[in-house]
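RETRY 2/3 - previous attempt timed out on the joint model. Re-submitting the same 228-residue input unchanged.
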Amino acid sequence: ETGVTQSPTHLIKTRGQQVTLRCSSQSGHNTVSWYQQALGQGPQFIFQYYREEENGRGNFPPRFSGLQFPNYSSELNVNALELDDSALYLCASSFDMGSSGNTIYFGEGSWLTVV
Amino acid sequence: GESVGLHLPTLSVQEGDNSIINCAYSNSASDYFIWYKQESGKGPQFIIDIRSNMDKRQGQRVTVLLNKTVKHLSLQIAATQPGDSAVYFCAENGVAAGNKLTFGGGTRVLVKP
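RETRY 2/3 succeeded.
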């Protein structure tokens, strides 16, 4: 049990629709990162939020956007869904960006299927 | 739930034997390395980490070795148990690496009874 909770656990969307995924970080953590994990691959970094500001972004288009709230929970929004967006979306929680020894904990993920 | 790692390299090990999983990392600026275990349908679970100023770190039944010269990381699991069956990922991180985790390709471990 990591204390990182994600919702929903599973969802199915139609191509072109929009989706919002939610994450509650572990108590005391001020940093949330989002990762996309396609079937058979390792997680790929989408972006990171540190104290409500975006703090780094991976190679994902602008239709992937996010928010971090004052309580450090976070949302991932994906617009204009494409079939290739079908994946497990993981939220990772840490303190102070998780670098140099601050352990990074993952939630169980949200499985998104785009049809 | 759905499974991950359908096309990953697989290590088959007899229950009770030791397992060694290897990983090559890419960024010489990375200064923090982590091993994660991922079971089918679940998120990655933290196993053990190591900073770049160390070359070995031990946990409960696990040991991580770091060779910065050749950018190589390994995870050793002692007395492998059926519950160790999962996909294992190494990940690198660090301030100079952008404070993001970069994951290796993963290895599936199958424990035979």
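The first strand of chain A starts at residue 5 and ends at 7. Closing ticket.
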